Each structure stands twice: as structure tokens, then as C-alpha cells.
Amino acid sequence: MASLFKRRGNWHAQFFSAERSPARKRVRIQATGKREAERVFSKMLVAYGEGAWDPWSSPQWPPNPSHDLDLPSVGCASQAFLDSREGLREATRKHYRWVLNLFVEYVGPNEPLGRLCARSVGNWLASNAKRSEATRNTYLTRLRVWGRWLKSKGYDDFTEGVALSSPPERLPSKVITTEQARALAEAARIVGPDYLSGVILVTHLLALRLGEVCAMTAEWLDHTDQTVVVQSGGAFTTKSGRVVRKPATEEAWAILSAASERHLAGPLFRNSRGNALNPKWTSKQFKRLVRRCGMPETFTFHGLRHGALTELAKQGVNMDLIRRFAGHSTMDMTLRYVHLDSSVLAKEVRSALTSSGVQDTRSPRTRR
Predict the structure, then answer these.
(1) CA pair distance 235, 239, nearest whole angstrom
(2) pTM of the model
């Protein structure tokens, strides 16, 4: 007698024989879905019935671990992973699909999953040498999520050992500081459009995405502890598919409270005609402000978020707290968005070592 069941996200086959010890023998099945598990289970039953395999004496499937034809193909594993991302917003799923399809096309959709390794990833990244370092890092970040998902299903994480490229030490020209954000908000108040002034400050002080600030409603405001609850609703879906709580400063909360009094229902921030903000049009208006203020052409609306997260890191805020505040699903993503120069790193390390009792052994001349 044998049965197939799923427990804690993993598929198992259980065999029973009153004449064996123990009477029940469980074998884990490496499968990405029910259909794949049923296919493997059928092969197990055939092999067991023919006497070619015994789960008690050889509790491993397939019997020959070097023979990987029973493992799912790269194409099937990719599709199963994409199906598991249904909770994410469409733009995020689309990007996952784009990156994985590029990789699957490179290695071949029918390639057995067991043959993938770190070298496969390295060769693929090398084949994209014409793309920027940031783009290749983004590709690897997406593959890493897939690799961790495969590991949770009982397979090897083929991305282990592949490192991201080192980020530049200098602050990128896309990061907007708090001082610059205030200057842009003041310019919007004076020369227009004035409704952008509060939008710019709230976006920077809460490290919001453009889509989030445009979709924000009074329901997002938790008045018990002055917290903004970024959540999916209506046509809007958060990037990670999860709810993110963001503590607001007094300045940000004052702007939000005033907006909520004007608009009890619908979007908090609206244009001069009283309509909801259009993300694309808001981005264009912001770009015009950047040019009016004579700031770098590389500044975009998303730079307000980058700058806020970078400022938190420079102030010594714990990186995991920054990750949670940003709403990032992984620390890799946070490290891509937070930019620290070497002087800040040195200060933090020396401060930590000194407070832990480790003495500074550099000579007085070196200390200068």
C-alpha cells in the first residue's frame, strides 16, 4: 500500500507493509507541483512493483542520483516559480518573467534542473556584458529569489556562490538628499504646480514609491501611532504584495492630516483640477522642477526614495529596519538602494569596535 501527500510545502510518498520494519516508510519527492509529484509517484509505484526499487533498503528517489532525467526541466521549474508569484503586483511579475525567460532561453528550456550550477549563472551574466553593471545585478537578484524558492522545495540553489558586483563608493547622481528635496518642494510651492510640494516632501520623508503616493487614501493613515499603512486596494497593488507600515515624522504627518481633511474618500493627493494624480504626468512635472532648480538631469522622482533610505543608513539605522521601512523583500534589494561612501563605513566600524572594547592601535600620525 502506498499514498501520496503534501506536508509543509513538500511532497512525500509513504509505503506500508506490515511485514517490514518500520511498517511505514516515507520518501520525499522532489517536485514543483502536484502534477509533477503524481508523475514521480507513478514511477515509484512501477519500480516498487517490479522489484527494481525498494524504499526500505534504498530510501531515495531516483535510485541513481546522478541520473537527472526524472528532475523537472528548467522551463517547467521557471513556470512553477512564476505561478507562485501571483501575489505580487503585475509590474513585478512581468519583470520576473522577463529575466527568467532570458535565462531559460540561454540554458535551454528542456535542460534538466539538476544540471544548473553557479557556472551557468556566471556564463549567462558574462554573455550580457553589454548591459550595465546595475542591470546585471538586477538579473542576479531575481535569479537568487528563484534559487531560494527551489531550495525550499528540496532542490539545490544554483545561484549560491555567485556574487553581486561591488557598488560604487561615491553617491550615485540619482540620489536626492533631504536638502535637495526641500528645495524642490519649495520651488513647487512658489512657481508651481503647488500641489507637488506636499507630494515631494511626503514621498521623501516616507521613502515612498511614485505609485504608492498617488494611490494613498485616508484609509492608509493609522492615527493611533501616526503610521502610514501601505496596502493593496482597488486597482493598486503593493510591489511586494504585502502590507508595509511606515512611521511618519511630525512634518509628514501634518501634511497627510491636512490632505485627509480635504479628501475623506479617494486619493489624498490630487492635481489642481481635483483629479487623482497620474504617475506618468507627475513624473514629468517633477522633471520640469528639477530643471528649473538647475539640479542634475539624472534626478528622477524615484531618487526621493533612494535619498531617504541612504540618509537613514548614514545616520546609522539598522539595515534590517531600513529593509522593513522600505518594504523590500530581501536584504539584497536594500543594499542596492542604499549607498554609503567609505568614510561613513569607516566611522561606523570604528565606533562599533571602540564601544565593544577593541582598542584603536593605529599610530597618532595615522589617526589624523
Answers:
(1) 13
(2) 0.53
In angstroms, the Cα distances linking 182 to 253, 290, 295 are 16, 12, 13
Strand stretches in the chain, DSSP E:
2-7, 10-16, 24-29, 221-222, 227-230, 244-247
> Starting at the edge strand that comes first in sequence, how are the strands of the sheet with 10-16 ordered?
2-7, 10-16, 24-29
Helices (H), 108-174: 118-127, 133-152
Instruction: Calculate Rg over the CA atoms of the chain.
Output: 27
180-229 pLDDT per residue, tens? 999 999 988 887 788 899 999 999 999 999 899 998 888 899 888 889 99
Phi and psi (nearest 5°) for 10? -120, 145
Distance CA 78, CA 72 (A): 10
Asked whether the CA dihedral 93, 321, 300, 164 is positive or negative, the reply is: negative
User: In whole angstroms, what is the distance from residue 42 CA to residue 202 CA?
Assistant: 58
Cα separations (Å) of 313 from 41, 111, 138, 167? 51, 42, 21, 15
CA–CA dist 35, 344 (Å, integer): 53
